[in-house]
Amino acid sequence: MVEAEADYKRDMEAFYKMAKYPLIKYTDMHAEMRDEAMDICITAVEKHQQDWEKATQMIKETMDKKFGSPWHVVAGAYFSYEITYECKNILYLYVGGTTGVLVWKM
Question: Which residue range is the domain that position 81 belongs to?
Fold first, then answer.
């Protein structure tokens, strides 16, 4: 039992270490735009932890200013999507392991 708990703690530590890095699930953005959008998403989620409304508002406003309107954003722990988007303008990533962020332009 003690050994199982030690294994669990070790596994969780490894997960949290890995989860600090963003994981891109899907994108068709150019590399430069993708990197900027990823930085914007990470900053917003870290600044407004668990307050998805403020985080998405910050991401949308920043993306609108940098890349022109209209950008749409969804963030949260559990969601799926089926959307229409402008080619070369979608990013779906995970930040912090469990927070999904979807950014797209229509």
Answer: 21-105
Q: What is the CATH number of the domain that holds 75?
A: 3.30.740.10
pLDDT in tens, 55-94: 999 999 999 999 999 999 999 988 999 999 999 999 999 9
Contact yes or no for 61/55 (Cβ under 8 A)? no
Tens-digit pLDDT profile for residues 7-23 = 887 877 776 666 668 89
Report whether 36 contacts 42 (CB < 8 A): no
Residue of 81, 102, 106, 105 whose CA lies nearest to 38: 102
Q: How many domains does the chain have?
A: 1
